Amino acid sequence: MPARAGNGRGAPVAIVTGASSGIGRALAVRLASSGYRVGLIARRVELLESLRDEIAKARGLAVAEAADVGDRDALRGSVARVEEQLGPADVMVANAGFGAPTHLDPLNIDDVEQTFRVNLMGVVYSIESVLPGMLARRSGQIVAVSSLAGDRGMPGESAYCASKAAVNVYMEGLRIALRERGVVVTTVCPGFVQTPMTPMDAAATPFIMSAEAAADRIARLIEGRRGGVHRFPRRMALLMSLIARMPDALVARLVGDGSAHEPAPAEPAP
Ligand SMILES: NC(=O)c1ccc[n+]([C@@H]2O[C@H](COP(=O)([O-])OP(=O)(O)OC[C@H]3O[C@@H](n4cnc5c(N)ncnc54)[C@H](OP(=O)(O)O)[C@@H]3O)[C@@H](O)[C@H]2O)c1
Q1: How far apart are CA 268 and CA 265, in angstroms?
Q2: How remote is the CA of residue 196 from the centroid of ligand 1, in Å?
Q3: What is the domain partition of the chain in residue ranges?
Q4: Using N-to-C axis directions, what is the helix angle for 72-86 and 122-137, rounded to 10°?
Q5: Class level of CATH domain 13-255
Q6: Which of 36, 125, 160, 170 is labelled catalytic?
Q7: 160 is catalytic
């Protein structure tokens, strides 16, 4: 069962963005089964509604609200509607994420902007939507699902890695600033997790874990109100810390120079 109900209204409330798939979906199921009332947010509302029904069948309580986390007003509206139905959020899990290869020739600027809009601004807007209430109650937990990819810029993934590095540093500053204000700040950095976002190539995804295992790790950080940075699985975190210290030439030898991520050249005009 959850450690405690911080909102004074019985079972605690957790809001999970990116709940329609992968880690977010598994986390919503896991938290609901532990007694949390769960707000489900993502764009694909039909997937959220079927998850809500699945949770209800298992005697849990969830509500579904559609929003693009990169749209500040839409997200704030959805979070407000979740809180109207379930009560104030004890936990916000800013999990929604977007991944696209970084191309060089030409630079795929639209993808870079979308990566930062979702992965960084989506986290910031998610926090904005609950922080005033948490500060007023002097209680709450903010969780950002970042990635071990934030530890090093990888060829072909510059934008994704940079967005996660930005999340890590943003959360670090918040963590220090909120130390004495009752709000726990948690940064989660998983390695490879089996979800639609991950390539199917097993050789390219060492130490991959299931979405359920990743969700369980995150749920335990929530139940224990544990702040700080949490990198897992341990062997992938160790490998990433080595890669982060490697010279560029060695990284290129290990993972390539990113040219495999480039789109195929266009057919010459007849
Ligand atoms: N899979 C991995 O190996 C791995 C490793 C480390 C970290 N992560 C991080 O874990 C988080 C979850 O990813 P996942 O692996 O579970 O991927 P996933 O299965 O593709 O799920 C991504 C989720 O984000 C939501 N989302 C994407 N863009 C959105 C937007 N603009 N507005 C609202 N929701 C949006 C998607 O919902 P809709 O499409 O319905 O909006 C979906 O629910 C991400 O932050 C990712 O970077 C993943």
Answers
A1: 9
A2: 9
A3: 13-255
A4: 40
A5: alpha beta
A6: 160
A7: yes
